[in-house]
Design brief:
Elements: H1 3-12, H2 19-30, H3 43-66, H4 77-85, H5 93-106, H6 116-125, H7 128-142, E1 148-150, H8 162-171, E2 175-176, E3 186-191, E4 194-200, H9 202-210
Helix pairs in contact: 1-3, 2-3, 3-5, 4-6, 5-6
Length: 215
């Protein structure tokens, strides 16, 4: 079923067969059907969550194919539950892509999957602005010669919210703002003469890698 057909069917209220593509795709990841997990009240919420789950799973399947994973590992139900509960409420494309990438990497046999459940839990707590900032910091850290970033150049983030974002990312153990604890720092300038020195924690670096698909 194509995404447009799925959405059209949901809009018409035809419930028969709508669960099939989602539960079939989930079965590929966890190894058994999960129909009983969709018992939520209210048709609007039901279709909203179902549509988002379907979009994320569709993206994950494409990522798996793009990465050339022929024999994906099975994902424990405990690991995938944040996707079913929190990811299904996410309609932002940036975060949907991260849910899909995280799921695709959770079946990638090249990774150690001991901390997958932690990564899914962290993603369930991120806002769009926090995810955007993490990506910009990571790109500066990995791809650019200069590790100096001006907040004004980051679309989707306001200067006034940067301190709150950084505080939350520290609380999630994704970044560190304590000089001397890490070797490599990124300078994030809010306005002239007002800047932060940041570094990634080991958890932060690995989390960002798992939320991206490198082909």
């Amino acid at each position: 079923m194509e995404q447009k057909d799925f959405i059209e069917a949901a809009a018409k209220g035809t419930t028969a067969g709508l669960l099939a593509p989602v539960t079939d795709m989930l079965k590929q990841f966890v190894g058994y059907p999960l129909t009983e997990l969709f018992g939520i009240a209210g048709d609007e919420i039901y279709f909203f969550r179902l549509k988002n789950q379907y979009k994320i799973l569709l993206k994950a399947e494409k990522f798996i194919s793009d990465m050339g994973i022929d024999e994906p590992a099975k994902v424990p139900l405990k690991t995938i539950m944040p996707l079913l509960k929190d990811g299904s409420m996410e309609e932002n494309e940036t975060l949907q892509d991260k849910w899909a990438a995280l799921l695709a990497n959770a079946v990638n046999p090249k990774y150690n999957h001991s901390y997958d459940s932690i990564f899914f839990d962290i993603l369930s707590k991120l806002t769009t602005a926090e995810a955007i900032l993490l990506d910009k910091l990571y790109e500066a850290y990995v791809y650019y010669d200069s590790m100096f970033i001006e907040v004004s150049n980051i679309q989707g983030i306001e200067d006034i919210e940067i301190e709150m974002i950084l505080h939350r990312l520290v609380k999630l153990d994704l970044i560190d703002t304590t000089k001397g604890k890490r070797d490599t720092f990124i300078t994030l300038q809010v306005v002239e003469d007002y800047e932060f020195a940041l570094s990634f924690t080991p958890v932060g670096l690995e989390f960002i890698k798992r939320c991206r698909v490198e082909i």
